[in-house]
Structures are given as C-alpha cells and as structure tokens.
UniProtKB/TrEMBL annotation:
Source lineage: Bacteria, Pseudomonadati, Pseudomonadota, Alphaproteobacteria, Sphingomonadales
One Pfam family recorded for the sequence: Exo_endo_phos
Gene Ontology MF: a single term: endonuclease activity
InterPro entries from the UniProt entry: Endo/exonu/phosph_ase_sf, Endo/exonuclease/phosphatase, GPI-anchor_lipid_remodeler
Keywords associated with the record: Endonuclease, Hydrolase, Nuclease
PANTHER family assigned to the protein according to its UniProt record, in alphabetical order: CALCOFLUOR WHITE HYPERSENSITIVE PROTEIN PRECURSOR, ENDONUCLEASE_EXONUCLEASE_PHOSPHATASE DOMAIN-CONTAINING PROTEIN
Domain Endonuclease/exonuclease/phosphatase span(s) in chain numbering: 7-222
Gene3D superfamilies: Endonuclease/exonuclease/phosphatase (3.60.10.10)
Protein name: Endonuclease/exonuclease/phosphatase family protein
C-alpha cells in the first residue's frame, strides 16, 4: 500500500509571533513536518514587488523542497500568496492558477504531482474573510476540481471559516471529506480550525494532526496541519 504525506501552512509572510521576519524558521518547521507536498499561504510579501517570503536560494540550500513554477511574477513564489512546495525528486505535471471571485484579491493554485510513485492533484487556497465571498470561492474551486482527469484529489489551505460545519465547510463537505487535523490558529494558543485538508474518496486517510513544536509556535501565527493518505 502506497502512502503520501501532505501539509498546509499559512506562513504569514515568514513573520513570526515575535513580529520578526525570519524565513529560516519556516524552513525549520517544514523540515519537522516532513511532508511530500505542502500548500503554503501568504508565501509572498504583500506590498511592493511581492517577492517570495522565502528567498529561492534559501529554499534550495536549506530545504529538500522546490516550488511549483507558476510563472506569474518574477520574484514571487505563489499566486496571491498561494504556493505549492514538493520534494525535489517529485515530478510536477500539469499546473495552473485559479482566478477566484473576490472582494479582496484572492486566488488558488493547482498542480498534478507524482511523489513516491503516487500521482495526486492538489489545490491550494486562501479564502476570503467575508463568508459570502468564501462560498463563491469554494464553488469556483469545487468546479475546477471537477474538471479534467479523475486523479486522486486533495484540497488544502486557510479557509478563514470560523463556524464548526457551516458556510463554505458545508459546500466542500458535499464533495470531499475533511481530515480532522485540529486547531491551528493562533499558534501560541490554538482556538480555531481555520486551516483544512480535504480529500476525495479515492484516498484513504491514515493519520492527521497539527504540528506543534517550539519552532512552529514562533515561525507564524498559524500552525501547520498535515495528513497521510494511502492509495490502494
């Protein structure tokens, strides 16, 4: 039985709970999580040229990951802050960005990844603060995920949904299962499950959780969440 480990992490532009921007701490946390595929949110700086919060040279030298090349902005890692990292030996197939309806600029990313001889399609997202726009964005992601080949599909990201099972959670839940990872925000004292991992019926959830370590509690105001899946 083949297994794959994925994670989602809002890195807050590499600004930690001490308000210091230290991308090396984010890379330390990614090493601790040790996932095959990682969806990042707030992976680019917000203003100016919106350069990557983790400089490409640091990512290459201090981690075992590479970013899915979105080819949108020269200095950015992601699309509206959404990026997908994969192990350096992983194969990247079809990949694209999604234009979502928005009140404030939002987007999502998609990539077909082969890691450990398993091919999955991954969507990364960071949804709106407004409940109405979150539901519209969820509908757009669900529609996009229904297109193309019938690959095992994983959706991950910061949904910004504070309700227990309403709003966009109910919309996603009609099509996908949620990994019950746990509370990930705020990193110092988690009270909300803003970060979520969802999966289709082709994948079997083996384990999941929130990564809580000393480094993770400092590197961002969100804790990373992770899940392991098997494909029969």
């Amino acid at each position: 039985m083949k297994t794959i480990r994925v994670a989602s992490y809002n890195i807050r532009k590499a600004i930690g709970t001490d308000r210091r921007r230290i991308p090396e701490r984010v890379l330390e946390v990614l090493g601790e999580v040790d996932a095959d595929i990682i969806a990042l949110q707030e992976a680019d700086r917000r203003f100016g040229v919106r350069s990557a919060a983790i400089p490409p040279l640091l990512l290459d030298m201090l981690s075992g990951y590479k970013s899915v090349p979105l080819n949108i902005q020269t200095d950015s890692m992601g699309w509206h802050g959404n990026a997908i990292l994969v192990r350096k030996e992983a194969e990247i197939g079809v990949h694209d960005v999604l234009h979502l309806p928005y009140l404030e600029p939002r987007g999502a990313t998609m990539a077909e990844i082969t890691a450990k001889d398993i091919t999955v399609r991954v969507f990364g997202m960071h949804l709106d603060l407004s409940g109405l726009w979150r539901r519209r964005q969820a509908a757009a992601v669900i529609h996009a995920a229904a297109q193309g080949e019938s690959l095992p599909t994983i959706l991950m990201g910061d949904l910004n949904e504070w309700s227990a099972n309403g709003g966009c959670l109910a919309d996603f839940g009609r099509h996908y299962s949620f990994a019950p990872c746990g509370r990930s925000f705020h990193a110092r004292r988690p009270v909300a499950r803003l970060d979520r991992i969802m999966h289709c019926s082709q994948l079997t959830l083996k384990a999941c959780g929130v990564h809580e370590s000393a480094a993770a509690r400092k590197a961002s105001d969100h804790l990373p969440i992770w899940a392991e899946f098997s494909v029969d």
